[in-house]
Specification:
alpha/beta; Rossmann fold; seven-stranded parallel sheet; two-stranded parallel sheet; 5 helices
């Protein structure tokens, strides 16, 4: 039986690579992005949906359409995230004086709230023993914070991690064997990391394809007795 997979944020570098890889593995992929545009590499079997990510009405419509069509998902990948946006003066803060309410709000909206809205609306659409992955970041680890800075990004990813841990508890009450993964992909050669790549060693700047391969390999080997994992690109546990 063909496995249905949902990829949210499919226009990003990692999202596009995931759709391409999963579709070529024979999975029936449902790809959600803001424009509904299909990447050139994607096969025609990929179902593409245009959606403003924070539009709950659109999320409810998507849920209703999937329910009516009797479509459920064995894997979900939520890859939305923001680190910088020069058009909106959004940059990681180096000191307290750089903090602004508008920037903090944007970080939390994209990195925390939007993934949580998806977790809210897809709860009835996943199968027993499903795997739900959200792209997080090592800097979202409270116990690992040694350098400071990046207030909005750090805090919004820490909030995402808490959302994931909390949702995992409730999901397991509803569906048997569901596993959540908060995943740190490392530094990926993408628009998100581009301004921060110059000090990254060449061997630590990963292609989206390498990142995707690592992620899919790691989730196959998860201890499924645990409801939730916070792991890095090597599959090593990160302290929450």
């Amino acid at each position: 039986m063909t496995s249905n997979v949902l990829v949210v944020g499919a226009s990003g570098a990692i999202g596009q690579a995931l759709v391409d890889k999963l579709a070529n593995e024979g999975k029936l992929v449902y790809a959600v992005n803001r424009t509904g545009q299909r990447a050139l590499k994607w096969p025609e079997s990929v179902n593409v949906f245009a959606m403003s990510q924070h539009d709950e009405t659109a999320l409810e419509q998507f849920k209703s359409e999937m329910t009516t069509s009797n479509i459920s998902f064995s894997q979900v990948f939520i890859t939305v995230g923001v680190l910088h946006d020069t058009q909106r003066s959004l940059l990681p803060e180096k000191r307290l004086e750089d903090i602004s309410a508008s920037a903090l709000s944007e970080y939390f909206k994209v990195n925390s709230v939007i993934p949580m809205l998806w977790l809210k609306h897809i709860a009835s659409l996943i199968t027993n023993d499903a795997t739900v992955v959200c792209l997080s970041a090592r800097v979202g680890s409270i116990s690992d914070n040694k350098l400071g800075g990046w207030y909005g990004y750090r805090a919004s990813k820490a909030a995402l991690n808490m959302y994931i841990k909390t949702a995992a508890v409730e999901y397991r009450r509803r569906k048997k064997g569901v596993v959540f993964v908060s995943y740190h992909p490392g530094t990926v050669d993408s628009a998100l990391s581009e301004p921060f790549q110059k000090n990254v060693p060449a061997k630590k700047l990963f292609s989206p394809e390498f990142t995707t391969q690592n992620l899919l390999s790691h989730i196959k080997g998860l201890n499924r007795d645990k409801a939730v994992h916070f792991i890095d690109w090597q599959g090593v546990d990160i302290e929450w």
